[in-house]
Amino acid sequence: MAKHPVMFEIDWNACIKCGACVAVCPLEAGFISAFDTIAVDKPCDVVCLACEKVCPVTAIRHSDA
Amino acid sequence: MSRSSDYDLVVIGSGPAGATTARYAAENGLRVLLVDKKQELGAPIQCSGAVSAHALSDVEVMPESEFVLTPIYGFIVYDEAGNPVYLDYRELKPDVYADAPLGYVVDRRRFDRALLSMAEDSGVESWLKTEALGVDRISPDLLEVRLRRLGQEVSVRTRILAGADGVQSQVGKWFGLATHIKLSELASCLQYVVDGVETEGLLEIMTGHAIAPGGYAWIFPKQNKHAEVGLGVIRTMTDDDAHAYLEKLIKDSFLSDRLKDLRVLEIQGGGVPLAAPLKQQYSDNMLLVGDAARHVNPITGGGIHTALRCGAIAGRFIADVIRGGNTPDEQCMSAYQQRWSEELGESMWRLYRRKREIFRQRDIDRRNQMLFETLSHYFSPESEYRKI
Ligand SMILES: Cc1cc2nc3c(=O)[nH]c(=O)nc-3n(C[C@H](O)[C@H](O)[C@H](O)COP(=O)(O)OP(=O)(O)OC[C@H]3O[C@@H](n4cnc5c(N)ncnc54)[C@H](O)[C@@H]3O)c2cc1C
């Protein structure tokens, strides 16, 4: 069953701008924000959630797109 | 050719890998542009800054007081219960290390800036606040790189592009390489720079699944009695994040008593690839270097030395290609990876296989033992790996 696309939301207060979420992201180039994180302005349809897991401070959450 | 190249080489990212690639290419006569999106290199810090003395001398960098925070004389490796192995080179090899340090802890802001400055001295042109956005191929011998420089879109033409854009690398993806790192191979790291923790010129490494599953914890000395206390975990091996493990290390571990007066001065983190080097680190007119190519020691997570070494290899290689009048197609660029393999890639692969053997071990006590022994041996004078 295809997964529902999700939008990510980042707790900018907790985020340490380390880029680990971008490093594990299997999407094509460009799924990034201006702050060295995964994109928060477009949906992700892979939904592996590796980005949420790798975050050292658990600053990433998602909801249905 | 409609318009000729502006540069022989454009390097994306001015960390240790990019600045060194650019410097060696320019020293060998190339026209080089080095771009970095940051306004201040090395910041926010995502690194503990431990680097060996020979890593610096290998690439002709002097250990300047501008960036050296403190000299390092050896290691202490602890097992999960807190039993230490001391590897103090002042005692193990007093003839060499009584006065000369084994390595340093550097301030990455100052270090990266010093490397940029050396590159500029060699003739590299550098643009900060310049983000690389993408690339188009104009001809087999020419790329157009799209940049945003202080808010303005600009493009430059180059014959070769080096992607030194770190762990979150996008450049490889532009060329169709699958560069993302598996969750099971990216250590999720957090460290505090602290006050109130005594150290003795040694890098301290704490092993054990209960302390840092899939990785290890560390205490590194810094200047003015400051220290770094941090750890990296592999999130496929635990439900808790690095932050939770770091708090546990401080409040509830064999170190708690020593860490009880700690005051946090800075909070830093990042991802460290404990992964195999990228199987293909080049494409037409392009090569990857440093974290972008996963040139990181998969046992220690150290990537400064490998970034510097690989930068020197890449810079010299690109100079040979351009000066030899070759078209930098994939075939031609593959010789870069060949050179890298011969110089250090093979030992990195051996370390990776060892790492995999450790973490595939299902019996946790046995795994803890294997990691403790491997790290103790790795940092000992008998290690066959001391060069990387
Ligand atoms: C918590 C932590 C502790 C560590 N401790 C150590 C240690 O003690 N010793 C050690 O040897 N290694 C350590 N490492 C690893 C080390 O930091 C890296 O391996 C090293 O920084 C890699 O260097 P690099 O030049 O490849 O990449 P980086 O240093 O990451 O540099 C990449 C540069 O590229 C720039 N960039 C990225 N994308 C773009 C773009 N699109 N356009 C323009 N510029 C761009 C970035 O701004 C950055 O300046 C640690 C890592 C972490 C996370």
The largest inter-chain interface, given as chain pair and residues per side, is:
A-B, 23 and 30 residues
Please state the average pLDDT score of chain A: 95
Radius of gyration of chain B, Cα only, in angstroms? 21 Å
Fraction in beta strands of chain A: 15-25%
Range of strand content of chain B:
25-35%
The arrangement of helices and strands of chain A along the chain is EHHE
The CATH superfamily of the largest domain in chain B turns out to be FAD/NAD(P)-binding domain
The secondary structure category of chain B is alpha/beta
Write down the CATH topology of the largest domain in chain B. FAD/NAD(P)-binding domain
How would you sum up this structure, described in words?
The complex is a heterodimer of chains A (65) and B (388). With 65 residues, chain A is of the alpha+beta class. In chain A, 15% of the residues lie in helices and 15% in strands. In chain A, strands 1-2 form a two-stranded antiparallel ribbon. The mean pLDDT of chain A is 95. Chain B is α/β, with parallel strands linked by helices. The termini of chain B are far apart. Chain A binds chain B through residues 16-20, 22-26, 28-30, 32, 36, 48, 50, 53-58, and chain B through 44, 46, 134, 166-170, 173-174, 178, 180-183, 186, 188-190, 235-236, 241-243, 267-271, 273. The structure holds flavin-adenine dinucleotide (FAD). Flavin-adenine dinucleotide binds at residues 12-18, 35-38, 41, 46-51, 131-132, 164-167, 170, 189, 191, 230, 269-272, 290-292, 296, 301-305, 307 of chain B.
